[in-house]
Amino acid sequence: MAKRIMVQGTMSGAGKSLIAAALCRIFRQDGLRAAPFKSQNMALNSYITRDGLEMGRAQVVQAQAAGVEPDVRMNPILLKPSSDTGSQLIVNGEVRGEYRAADYFKMKKSLIPEVLAAYESLSSEYDVIVIEGAGSPAEINLRQDDIVNMGLAQMVNAPVLLVGDIDRGGVFAQLYGTVALLEEEERARIAGLVINKFRGDEALLRPGLSMLEEKTGIPVLGVIPYVQVDIDDEDSLSPRLGRSAHRKAVDVAVVRLPHISNFTDFAPLERHPALGVRYVGRPDQLAGADLIILPGTKATMEDLRWLRESGLESEIKKLSAAGTPILGVCGGYQMLGETLSDPEGVEGGGEIAGLGLLPCRTVFAPQKTRTRAEALAVAPPFDNTPLSCYEIHMGITQRAGGVPFARFPDGREEGAVEGKVFGTYLHGLFDTGALVERLTGWLIKEKGLSLENVQVESQEDYRERQYDLLARVVREHLDMEAVYRAMEEYQ
Questions:
Q1: Which residue among 14, 15, 116, 157 is least packed, with the fewest CB closer than 10 Å?
Q2: Active-site residue among 259, 272, 330, 389?
Q3: Domain for residue 236, yes or no?
Q4: Co-location of 135 and 256 in the same domain
Q5: SS3 for 261?
Q6: Rounded distance, CA 303 to CA 360, Å?
């Protein structure tokens, strides 16, 4: 069975996912076959594997860092929030239903056999399993029946690295308080403490590090500096969604819907030197946009109502009439149509008018479409640009006019285009970079500009370079010998 190391944090956002990704890349560099594992993930950013199953994006990133194919066993439980108190439950890539938080808490212990089966299956195939926790192990109200932090560490007998975020302040209290709230046998599992996102002179920290080690009895194995790496974010808490783009040749405005999902679709656009991508939430922020994007969402009808009430709908329609291109992806595509009907109550029931910018109608259904596909973006101005993408949605959209956005190898048509309004269900449509170039060239031409001598790195090369950068920084500042010793001790 594989060796294992678990990364837990003092809070959400402490940097567990990136530390785990760095370890996956470091083990790969050291000649080991590593795989990530997170028993339970909560995020709206999901991914469809080659066999059509759904998993959390964070473990996809970690698998890519490890150089292995993403596998649903790496994230057997995925919770996709659908309200403040409920989530869609996905187990081993398949939807199990909608659960209120209290109901899920009561039943989650019954999922332990499936969690352990996924872990043990991975463990039999890999040299190292890098396990990521969730939130904080010191959430003592949730300790009973824990399946993702110390409870899981005990089940698989894993040593733990506890990560604190100094960028938010109070890191010594974070780490000491977390350790103090754990049971004695849980504290004994912590192989080392890690301070993450440090800026400044490490020498100034040393007195505090010594005192922290004295008070906890646990060594500090690393102080990881704050590093700018561009790696896909896990959820909509990401700082990415709050930032403004630097002024560039083309201004792209992505509407930040309340339940935005799979916003990583647009990361390749952000990396293009001619495109300035910003996320907006008010009508006045659309001013000057050369392209407006309506992204995916976990609650299409609810977010459409928000779009209407906020005044964004009327501004989008006004700008569209004036010639501004509009792109809708997945839920955004559904919003651009004429009507959205929910006869079976998938999104609460009823019917609502869409923006009416595309000649299509959507009917929601309980069955979720989950497929990976190769396609060609056939609509002008894309003219047979190859796509490698995936679908993940609940609902069927029928086009009654215009032209299709894409065509599959078997001849099936997908999406809808009417003038400069584009709609598609295809996620990851910009990942290969081909559509980025075609779209950018068209937008540049629309503005009467030209784009010359701009070399753009491929998406895959860029991503690999980011993983290598992350691994280099973590390796330089984390005691990897101590990490290897901890894994040996728990064999």
A1: 157
A2: 330
A3: no
A4: no
A5: strand
A6: 19
Find the CATH number of the domain harbouring 26.
3.40.50.300
- Long-range contacts (CB closer than 8 Å, 24 or more residues apart) made by 26-33: 26/471, 26/474, 26/475, 26/480, 27/66, 27/127, 27/128, 27/130, 28/65, 28/66, 28/67, 29/471, 32/127, 32/128, 33/66, 33/68, 33/125, 33/126, 33/127, 33/128
Element (H, E) at 73: none
Per-residue pLDDT for 130 more than 60?
yes
Contact call for residues 69 and 413 (beta carbons, < 8 A): no
Q: What is the DSSP code (8-state) at residue 28?
A: H
Q: Say if 242 falls within a structural domain.
A: no
Query: Does 212 share its domain with 89?
Result: yes
Active site residue 246: no
Asked if 427 is an active-site residue, the reply is yes
CB 246 within 8 Å of CB 277 = no
DSSP for 348-392? SSEEEE----SSEEEEEEEEEEEEEEEEEE-STTT-SEEEEEEEE
Instruction: Give me the domain span that covers residue 52.
Output: 3-231+465-489
**Tally of CB atoms within 10 A around 398:** 11
Reported as a single tens digit per residue, the pLDDT across 414-472 is: 999 999 999 999 999 998 889 999 999 999 989 888 766 555 667 788 889 999 999 99
Query: pLDDT tens, 401-418?
Result: 999 999 999 999 999 999
Same domain, 366 and 473: no
Q: Catalytic pick from 259, 272, 393, 427?
A: 427
Q: Are residues 100 and 52 part of one domain?
A: yes
Token pair of 59, please? Answer: 């473990």
**Amino acid occupying residue 394:** M
43 three-class SS: coil
